[in-house]
Amino acid sequence: MTRILAIANQKGGVGKTTTSVNLAASIASKGRRVLVVDMDPQANATSGLGMPRGSVAEGIYEALTLDRPVRELTQLTEVDGLYVVPSTRELAGAEIELVAVDDREQRLKRALEPVIAQYDYVVSGDDSGCGSGEGGEGGEIRTAVLVKVDIQPGQPDQRLESVTTVTISPA
Q1: What are the backbone angles phi and psi of residue 83, rounded to the nearest 5°?
Q2: How far apart are alpha carbons 150 and 123 in whole angstroms?
């Protein structure tokens, strides 16, 4: 069964993309098949996985707005077993383009359904999905959420209440 992981935090610049890319690469290094879905129009996960900005012609935007099959958009990275559905800057306009579309919150789920069983893990560093906030596309498909919590130095009353350790055994 595929595990879907969304790295979440409402604040920007806290390392969601870095965490998702590194987590995905670590899982893939254990022999698992991992798909990273880059839901950020800045395409930092895409570039972090070896595809320079501007070099990708199509990505998750086309799956969400034009119903292009994710299978056709998925690219293999330099890491064995690690794949990415890239992002492009066009994704920034998807929320506005989809505003009048029925069931728009389910578009990502429907786009991934045909390919999801091919992967052991699907990882996304932005569970808001196209900027739609609470209840957006990413939130509709996740099976686990890792909430990135920053503990501020000098504030001893802030404690991380629980830490879950996930062990990934080799395939």
Answers
A1: -120, 160
A2: 20
